[in-house]
Structures are given as C-alpha cells and as structure tokens.
Amino acid sequence: MCMFVSRVLRGVQSFIMSSKYNVVFVLGGPGAGKGTQCAKIVEEYGYLHLSAGDLLREERDEAGSEYGELIEGHIKNGTIVPVEITCSLLERAMKKSEKDNFLIDGFPRNQNNLEGWNKEMGEKVNLKFVLFFECPLDVCTQRCLDRGAAGSGRSDDNIESLKKRFETYMNATMPIIDHYDAINLVRTVNATGTPEEIFEEVKKLFS
Ligand code: UP5
Ligand code: MG
Questions:
Q1: What is the mean pLDDT of residues 113-132?
Q2: Residue 168 CA: which ligand is closest?
Q3: How many domains does the chain have?
Q4: How far is the CA of 15 from the centre of ligand 1 (A)?
Q5: Beta-carbon neighbour count of residue 150 at 10 Å?
C-alpha cells in the first residue's frame, strides 16, 4: 500500500515537473559571450533562446510602445528596467513559442528581477541551472567596443555606457549569481577563449 502511494506521488511529481517550463538562466558581464554561446546551444540542443536585452530592444523599437523611452533610458545608462516589463516580455515569448526548454539570457540581473520573476514564474518553471560566463572586465569591454566599431548600432556599445553597465553588473548582478551559487545552481565557464573553445566547456554541462 505504502509503495503504491509513493509510486503515485512520484508519478504526480514527475507530471508536475514535465508540465513546467525548463529554464537555464545565462548570466555574465556585458560582452561575456552570452548571446554567442546561446546560439551554439540552440543549434546543438534545441533550446529556445530568449535574450531579455533583445526583447527589450524589440519592445523599444515597437511603434507606439508606451515603454520605448523608459527602456532606452535604462539601456543607455546601463541600469535595469523594472521587472514587470521584462518578465511579461519573457512570459509572452515563452507562451507564444509553445516550447518547453528555454535559455533565458541576461536575466535576472538584480534583486527586483529575481523577486518579480519568482513571484510571477516561480511555480511555472523548473530552473535547471545558471550558466555563468566568467570573463574579465577588460576582455568584455574590448569585445563590446569592437562590436560598436563594427557598426552594431547598439546605443550602449560605447565607453560611457560600458562603464555604467559594468558598475551595474558588479553591484546588482553579481549578488544574484552569488545567491544561486549558495544554492548550488551555478555552473561556471571561463569565457576568455575562442567561441569554439568555450563551447567545448559548455557542452559538458548540457550532454
Ligand atoms: N564575442 C563573443 N564571444 C567571443 C569570444 N569568445 N572571443 C572573441 N569575441 C567574442 O558577444 C559580444 C561581442 O563579443 C560580439 O561582437 C561577439 O561576436 C564577440 P555577445 O555574445 O553578444 O555577448 P553578450 O554577453 O550577449 O553581450 P551583451 O552586450 O549582449 O551583454 P549585456 O548583458 O550587456 O547586454 P543585454 O542585451 O543583455 O542587456 C543590455 C541592457 O538591457 C542592459 O544593460 C540593461 O540596461 C537592459 N536589460 C534590462 O534592463 N533587463 C534585462 O533583464 C536585460 C537587459
Ligand atoms: Mg547579449
């Protein structure tokens, strides 16, 4: 009888888990290579890649968006958009995709993001782990400046914005990575090699 009950409970638990969204958060400094590695993970493992920054830029560029100016202000200043906006863009994209496995890139970036996400999405999501690309500030800065010089069109690929992006990263985002690390969810990858070398390390976490 007892074994039967525990089997039923396990079944119910696995049903609940399988009906949830599987999420890997992808974090790391500006230019650490989050987007580049996510594209490779998508190709090899079939996740859907949602970059919070890309979704915010799309929303900013949407004609008549009521948040356009607010979003651009935060992007240029390297500060963080209130979670209600980012979380609803993420949830909308997740629902629309009809997929189950997501890489959420560049989120959550501060305590407000973490709390807002947990409140809205905590019950709907199975957080698998946090993929953390560790990359020194000088390497990250050079990558973003090179991208800006090559014509990225991003309003934050300049030295003034980059200084602020880093400040926010150190003060607001690192504590979020530390929080997940304390509950053993962080998987750290050294992000200073070539994209191919880095992906070899990433693969070990997904296979
Ligand atoms: N590159 C990549 N890998 C390389 C390698 N191994 N060797 C050499 N070059 C490499 O890469 C950056 C550049 O480096 C590219 O040119 C690439 O070719 C090259 P990328 O893969 O784009 O790095 P990524 O980490 O994705 O850098 P990104 O600039 O996108 O990081 P950010 O975290 O700064 O930007 P994001 O778009 O996530 O956010 C922008 C802003 O949006 C934030 O500052 C904030 O204001 C706002 N935001 C929010 O408010 N809330 C959110 O939740 C998210 C964003
Ligand atoms: Mg990116």
A1: 98
A2: 1
A3: 1
A4: 36
A5: 9
Q: What is the pLDDT of residue 17?
A: 61
CA 131 to CA 202: how far, in whole Å?
8
To 5 degrees, how large is the angle CA 191–CA 195–CA 196?
120
Q: Which ligand is nearest to the CA of 165?
A: 1
pTM (whole model) above 0.85: yes
Examine residue 176 and state whether it is found in any structural domain, yes or no: yes
Domain CATH number, residue 161: 3.40.50.300
Query: Does the beta carbon of 132 lie inside 6 Å of ligand 1?
Result: no
The amino acid at 65: S
Residue 18 confidence (pLDDT): 65
Domain that holds residue 110: 21-206
56-83 pLDDT, tens digit each: 999 999 999 999 999 999 999 999 999 9
Give domain status of residue 81, yes or no.
yes
Q: Is the residue at 16 inside a domain?
A: no
Give domain status of residue 66, yes or no.
yes
3-state secondary structure of 142: helix
Mean pLDDT of 87-101: 97
